[in-house]
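Closing statement on the (2R,3R)-2,3,4-trihydroxybutanoic acid sub-project.
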Amino acid sequence: MRVCRLVPVPALLCAAALSASAWAQTAMKINISVAQNSHYGVAIDTFAKEVEARTNGRYKIQTFYAGALGAERESVEGVQLGTLDLTMTSTGPLPNFVPEVAILDIPFLFRDYAHARAVLDGPIGQDLLQKFPAKGLVALAWGENGFRHMTNSKRPVNVPDDLKGLKMRTMENPIHIQAYKQFGILPTPMAFTEVFTALQQGTVDGQENPLSVITAAKLDQVQKNLSLTGHVYSPAVILINNGQWDKLSAADKQAFLDAAKEAVKANRARIDDDERKAVADLRGKGMAVVENVDKAKFQATLAPVYSDFAKRFGQDNIDRIKNYK
Ligand code: EAX
């Protein structure tokens, strides 16, 4: 600026220089593990649109899909280290970063979507979001992945015994792995970006994911059997690097939080839509679907691991979630 005053620079140029610096646009990258046409894709596309609108274009969010910038654990690490600005991830890899969040991964903890959403939007979920900054991560909002179901290429799964001996891909999640071993599954933890090929080549027999992921990843092309076990509710979370967060003004922090809220609305609406359509769609593509699974039998099989989880998380904390209305 000083230059403008000291040397005779045409006023227009001066004004341009002034507004350009005042209006510098900051670009940030956000990465997800699933395709754009998905419950996560609509979320980050909405987030990007809302951030740009609410900051008058001063922030531009570049969106990356299908693990283009790495799978979920790598993305969380990248946001922690600052090599990536943002990610939307399931809680799959999170116990390795924010152990308190692992309580949400306990099988059959949530009754239905309304219960899960109420817990995450309520004091329990909001308190858990406050556990992230201590780990160099800022959590903007709880999104959703959905209730997870079992798929495999070997046989229909009606009862827990049908899972015995199946080599199943799991998320890199210690709670899931401990529970699935109780079913007699041979768990193979693996990044989601490797799952389609592993199923195609028969490295694993099956995997478990919500209907939104099964459809978005076209797993009907490599899996014959789907059982609606709904054995785990899978939350998701939108994370930003704490350095980028600290640089935001108070008004821009609010803009990012509001944009995340809109992203979650789009995310949940897409899941509701997928939940309505997916079974007919996947059947139409040749999958054999077991809809009425006796969940009580699966829960009963997990009784031994529930006492471990009670020791780890406190039965009172588990009951507080279970009984939340
Ligand atoms: O978050 O890894 C998984 O199975 C997740 O459900 C997937 O990456 C979406």
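The chain is about 45% helix and 20% strand. With this model delivered, the sub-project is considered complete and its resources will be redirected to Aim 3.
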